[in-house]
Fold:
Amino acid sequence: MGPKLGEKPKATAWFVYLLRCGDGTLYCGIALDVAARLQQHAAGKGAKYTRGRGPLELVYQEACASKAEALRRERVIKRMRREQKRRLAGQASPT
Structure:
């Protein structure tokens, strides 16, 4: 059974993503459409943290089966140490 008239179809996957801000910090968030969310961040309409920290670069994204799973994964990533987040983002550790 599909969506009712006037309703948007439900998305199948939520994503956890990491952005590298212009000041070198990493920001973690969740979204259904990561590209659209990145555009919101770049336009200053995203999270307060990313405003004024451009340019922003998407460095990691991970698909999750549900919003609840994406929120749990986001919490895990946010609790990681900086070095763990950098590894996740594919960054080499500074020497």
